[in-house]
Write a structure and sequence with these properties.
Chain lengths: 200, 200
């Protein structure tokens, strides 16, 4: 019997390994990603995995970046909607993502990314990109926003993160739509307080 | 020459080691606490330190708990003030603490506590205690507050955490008092939105 083994390019192999890593993180957390399990699932040896990612940390950073991209892609919004509707759609998608990818989300936002500065940086960058996207989605340029507005929007993203975690932990105690409305109102109040801006 | 060595009780020795740990964390982060440095500073051997704290993790959890107590004590407020004034005093003290204990604060709130579930629990408990204290300081009982109000206040604590971190990172770009006012207004708006409550 002849078994056909697929020969992957270097980039395809890296992508496959990252994808498996994202799946493992989705079931557990960054700390629990077992390099051996990922290698076994890919049908390669542990040492070959380390050929693609020199250290466990390199691999985890690549997985964290892929998770962050997944979150950002899943919560992207329809630019043809009115700004206020876009904000609501973004929040709905955010909570739906959090609900469906519970563990991956918790491990990304709850410090389960470890004390590792490289993972922390992925997390910070994701929070920052979310803040910029939200403000720009409402039609306000990030770069020209006053420092206090930027601080307020970034802090509001942290607010939404904790609201999502609390919502998950409450197990149905609070309705998804109430969390969406709360977050929507909070942002609208913050913009009004910091810059007299009204969500269009 | 006779050197007098102070003989400490077990509890005194533990407290001394924790205190040294808090100082080391204050200068760097949880991840960087060197057991050897702490033992050397206390004038004891590494193995004797492990006699008081069986593992590095046990020691770090004790240090994190002491840091959290320090934060809570430093931000306690005068109960004779009116509720709204107490909130403002608490926020001022919070930002002053954050400013003076920069590294310790960052390492406690920025996931630098690592993927360790025991450290994560200390962090969660601190956020929760802050939320309860703030709501009760305003004269509203935590236990009888609607789930959405509790979620909003916990999320607001996360908002204040990120606002503090952004304020520190901005290096004077935003005034401390503007952050205090923003946080104050945000909580007042949230309570009004979730429960028609007015900050007294």
């Amino acid at each position: 019997m002849v078994r056909t083994r697929t020969r992957l390019t270097r980039e395809q192999r890296r992508a496959q390994l990252i994808d498996l890593g994202v799946q493992v993180v989705g079931r557990s957390s960054f700390d629990d990603v077992s390099i051996d399990d990922v290698a076994a699932a890919a049908g390669i040896s542990r040492s070959l995995l380390f050929h693609y990612f020199p250290t466990r940390r390199d691999f985890l950073v690549a997985v964290a970046e892929a998770s962050a991209e997944e979150l950002l892609a899943a919560t992207d919004t329809d630019p043809s909607l009115r700004p206020g509707e876009r904000l609501r759609q973004g929040l709905e998608r955010y909570l739906d993502y959090v609900g469906s990818r519970r563990e991956a989300y918790l491990s990304l936002v709850r410090g389960a990314t470890g004390g590792d500065p490289a993972l922390q940086e992925v997390f910070d960058r994701t929070r920052q990109r979310n803040a910029e996207r939200v403000l720009e989605g409402l039609g306000f340029a990030w770069a020209s926003a006053p420092p206090l507005v930027r601080l307020a929007v970034r802090s509001w993203v942290a607010f939404v993160e904790e609201a999502s975690v609390s919502w998950l932990a409450g197990d149905g105690e609070v309705a998804r739509d109430d969390v969406v409305t709360l977050a929507e109102q909070a942002l609208s109040d913050l913009l009004e307080r910091t810059a007299d801006l009204t969500v269009p």
